[in-house]
Amino acid sequence: MNNKKQSKNSNGMKQFSVISLFPEMLESYLSTSIMGRAQGEKLMRVNLIPLRTFTAGKHRTADDSPYGGGPGMVLKPEPIWKAVEAAKKKVKKGETRVILFSTRGKALDQAMVRRLSKYDHLIFICGRYEGVDERVAEHLADEEVSLGNFVLSGGELPALCVIDAVTRQIPGALGKFESLEDIKGSYPVYTKPALFEGKTKKGKMKKMKVPEVLLSGNHKLIEEWRKKSV
């Protein structure tokens, strides 16, 4: 398996491949805002790979009952293996990392995002039902990733989270590179109007002002205030 760090691919474009039973779930989110713009500017590309394409038989079955009994169904290894190989063939240059989303995986954090952003091609395996045949985790995936100590219905949401976070690391993907805020904390932000009246969470009407320092035009004082407010 390829664990090397990034070497520039042929055109510098970041590539993501998402293997899913329901790739249509991701289309709307990926086509809008930062990720839609980044794809339009050819800074990155997302390849949505329908897992059933790599199944056989009339019913295109991608899952089966677990050996030893138990509830639910398990995604079969054969179609996943074929899908990963197809994804690798489609993006032949650069360094690739294969990620399986799993509740047993390491929790996603900003350090992991920065590390994953060094790869040219990230392949995401999105599980469903009761999970994925363990041989995928043992012999195909380079690592397992989790969003945290809770259970989701599949790996599609984690895939979107990783794509979103990694895309923010691509130079040019954000309007201003300064938007890559420090994960340790960001300062409070305000916008117009300077005075706003509304009902608070306690149910009382209140006039709420923007801090005077932000209206002062004194950039030194503003910077000091921001540092203290983190």
Report on this model:
This protein is an alpha/beta fold and 230 residues long. The protein has two domains: 165 residues, 3-Layer(aba) Sandwich (Alpha/beta knot), CATH 3.40.1280.10; 43 residues, no CATH class. It is built from eight helices and nine strands. The strands form three sheets. It has a five-stranded parallel beta sheet with strand order 2-1-6-5-7, sandwiched between helices. Strand 5, helix 4 and strand 6 form a beta-alpha-beta unit. The two termini are 41 Å apart.
Relevant terms:
2 domains; 230 residues; five-stranded parallel beta sheet; 30% helix; alpha/beta; disordered N terminus; Alpha/beta knot
Q: Which whole number gives the mean pLDDT?
A: 90
> Could you tell me how far the N terminus lies from the C terminus, measured between alpha carbons in angstroms?
41 Å
* Estimated helix fraction: 25-40%
CA-based shape: elongated
User: What's the domain count?
Assistant: 2
CATH homology superfamily of the largest domain: SPOUT methyltransferase, trefoil knot domain
Low-confidence segments, given as residue ranges, are 1-10
Largest sheet: 5 strands, parallel
CATH topology of the largest domain: Alpha/beta knot
